UniProtKB/TrEMBL annotation:
Protein name listed in UniProt: Aminoglycoside phosphotransferase family protein
Source organism per UniProt: Microbacterium jejuense
Source taxon at top rank: Bacteria
Domain annotation Aminoglycoside phosphotransferase: ranges: 36-208
Organism lineage: Bacteria, Bacillati, Actinomycetota, Actinomycetes, Micrococcales
Stored Pfam families: APH
Amino acid sequence: MEDVEVIVAHSQRATLRVGDVFLKVDNNPAHAEVEMKAISVAPIPTPAVLWHRPPVLAITAVPGEALGVLGEPSTASKAAWAAAGAAIRKLHDAPLPPWPGRSLHDVVAELETECSWLLDNAVLPAETIRRNREIAQAALRPWKPRFIHGDLQITHVFVEGDEVTGVIDWSEAGPGDPMFDLATLTLGHEERLDDLLAGYGDDADRSVIRAWWSLRSLVASRWLIEHGFDPDAPGCEFDVLRSRMRDS
């Protein structure tokens, strides 16, 4: 009898591991639909979809270990980070998926809403919010849509040695700003950006990546607080926002 491991659980979604199978329970059926479609067309290693019986999606585990975790130094090699960059570039160069992604208007509206909430609830100093919102403006420009993962957290990229063995959790995939993926993967691991870009290529816009570090941290904080996570844990979103203040 295989043990059941709870990977993540909150009011919107739960992910369980039973042996080599992940069971994803989601109250929004659109997430599983996007994930299955993205996995079927993504040109990089992904899990295999085993079956889908709403609200449960079953996928295979991928070999290897996550590139790292938020709040702790990544022990992955420079070559592994470069391999991740090369894989992301391959995804971004692939044909656009045929479903819509988030628009610039959507991002601007979300930033406005979340900054207002952060100010109203005084979870951070107002100057920290104001300065990071100012930094985030560099990301709020028209972009050429690319096929992006959309939630490319460091725990979603798996490596074995210096090779990428799989990228998981594709429910936010779609056309979008490729710099957002690069920023999400290096959030809290800014020191590994050069390693990532060694594999991705020289045309990444570092100023936009830095802007997305601020923007993503601002818009994610309320959701994390309301779902039992701590954005003020060492190395996490609040630390990212404070570090932007020191760098400015």
